[in-house]
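Table 4 source record.
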Amino acid sequence: MWIADNWKDYEILDCTGGEKLERWGDYVLVRPDPQVIWETGYDHPAWKKKNGHYHRSSKGGGEWEFFNLPESWSIDYKTAAGKLTFNLKPFAFKHTGVFPEQAVNWDWCTERIKQAGRQLKVLNLFAYTGGATISAAAAGAAVTHVDASKGMVNWAKENAASSGLSEAPIRWLVDDCVKFVEREIRRGNKYDAIIMDPPSYGRGPKGEIWKIEKNIHGFIQLCTKVLSDDAVFFLINSYTTGLAPAVLTYMLNLELGNRGGNIESEEIGLPVTDSGLVLPCGASGRWWR
């Protein structure tokens, strides 16, 4: 398992009963997690000192309950290329604006970019609030950031500004990722690296439906057509439990195995302070030269 264990401003303090107890900087949140199927009690004192609690509804969805929590605050993450700053805002669907387990992929991409010895053109698809974008830009890459949500793209711009990357070569695009890649193929544009973090289910700006099990292999095929001949890496992340690491490896081998290089996939996870164990948070697949 690849473990995101370099955080200072984030940690999972404990997890039990379908919930995880997390410290985000100076604040403690309780959020549901479907992987936490064990019952080990609520002995950690922070369970009683939480600043926010997301409650699932039996009808679907849920809502936040707050206890002396600001509307927004920030946390930092240090990479080999510099400090990244993320602005957090608890919002619908239990999210805060950062998936902290992705730090293990940010570190890996940073290393690949810095070792390239040239400025890489990186395409970040389903780019959300820009964790991979700003880490790649901090490492010296020119990044094209694509997400279907205007609100998420604006949030990513805020994170870039907070990280001192307002003038970095980042192209911000609100677009359907599949249609964008199709247009880039017609234009003849190429990228030295691709990062994608597709949702299990989503809709594009014009109602386009995305289902990862149905669409992901075809989309990987499509994306290989915008990879440059001397491309450096391709990273795909999945939160869908049905897509095991071996499935990611199989797809990457089918579409990129003829390019040589290395292919590897693993679960990714976050350490739990109280138990010393690791909470699984999905899987990632990587191809690189």
